[in-house]
Hints:
The chain is built from 22 helices and three strands. By secondary structure, the chain is mainly α. The protein folds into two domains: about 10-165, no CATH class; about 180-515, Neurolysin, domain 3 (Orthogonal Bundle), CATH 1.10.1370. It has a three-stranded mixed sheet, sandwiched between helices. Strand 2 and strand 3 form a beta hairpin. The protein is globular. It starts with a helix and ends with a helix. The model is unreliable at about 1-15 (pLDDT under 50). Zinc ion (ZN) binds next to helix 11 and helix 12.
Amino acid sequence: MQSPASIEKETNTAVAEPPSKHERRLYELWGAIRDLGSVQELLDWDQETHMPSRGAVSRSHVCGTVATLKHRAVTDDELWEVIEACAAEAPEGSLLAAQARVARRDAARARRIPEDLAKAKAIARSRGTMAWQKARAAADFSLFQSELQELLDLAKEEAAALDPDGNPYDALMDRFEPGATEEELVPLFDHLVAELTPMVRAVMDSGKEVDESPVQGFFDVTRQQELAKYAASAFGFDFEAGRLDTAIHPFCVGIAPDDVRLTWRWQEDDLRPALYGVLHEAGHGLYEQGLPADWHRTPLGNAVSLGVHESQSRLFENQVGRSRGFWTWLWPRFAELFPEQAAAGSVDRIWPALHTVKPSLIRVEADEGTYNLHVAIRFQIERALFRGDLQVADLPEAWNDAYGELLGTRPADDSEGVLQDIHWSQAIFGYFPTYTLGTMTSAQLFEAAERDLGPLEEAFAEGEIQPLLGWMREHVHRHGRRYEAGELIERATGEPRSPAALMTYLRRKTEAVYGLS
Ligand code: ZN
């Protein structure tokens, strides 16, 4: 664990008071729920990394059964009574009050979803993932269309169960970003699109091209992995409490703070996708490893929201991993692993190539300037699906049109179009907006950290990431779910969540790389 001792000590106060009978029972019942959650995480991880494709049908039954058991545990009447008893006895503002608030929120949400629906969703999700993998490999959306239709129908059913009179998309987003609404996010995305589109256009119109050759050519995969793991370790990711495996789509699962799994994929002809994919997931992993171990298996022991999660991945990927300082430190190791490329290059030549602004097709590989436009497209498409303005059969065309319109580039096939993201196959709808919330928050948190710690570039050049990680541990990680996301960000930065820091950061980068403001 990377937490400074003082922080570890402070989190111990979480359960330092002798717990009451109800509190003890809450943690017993919650521990079993969390364990079933860990089983689900492990099953997902295995399905994405090691499971043979023919195992899909039997696996879907396992997933259905585990989901049913977990659903029963969360909706159990005894749990509800224990939560109410804890809420009644907890002093205002106490940790127990926060534990009860978060537990009640999760239990209330689950109690609105019928058991049959929870099970059907888990089975559809498992089948959907396998169908998506096949469809993606064949670049053929039709192989996933019926599974996706089923997943979408179940998501609509779930939204109706959660909030019969409300906005279905809000009900689904609430699972990932508690309290997020279309009403709040539509103007935010409109604002970002209005700011980013002219910035990207100005780069295109300038005709200035960044030399990408220092990061292109041939990069041996084993060496790429070595470099990525070396960099992730320098960030503070603990490989004794984590691992890295290969998957179609890079992701991170936190089975427990001492068991955090990252995945990656690579390209031999470009250094960036794999390296920045790993650094991104390592940022998620640092958050998972930094969650208070004492709160594991209690309601507060998880990440507060996916938006905050994404702030950590984007921050370590971009503000740290793409900084000139960090590359100054990484350079000797890079030169050892890739002597030919190093002989032809330098940090000054590589750095602009890490900041190319260029409309592209794949979100997870997009540059920082265009990234949020990829997210805006998904947000628009999902909302249209849930309003009923867009049918599943018309998705590939709608996707390609949206890319043509906003990014001026059209996918040649479905694998680089509508099939590129894993989310829908896993019954995950309403998640995409958290990518932009997280990107905004990463810039805001970094700005606040530098206000407290001073400029960090020089420390990065010495390989000193610990001061920044310590700041994140202190202001974000160690709080688990104690505060709502908005409150956590405001406490950490002194300001409400806002896109201002992100736009300042992006303008500064664009100016440095392209000479444009
Ligand atoms: Zn992420």
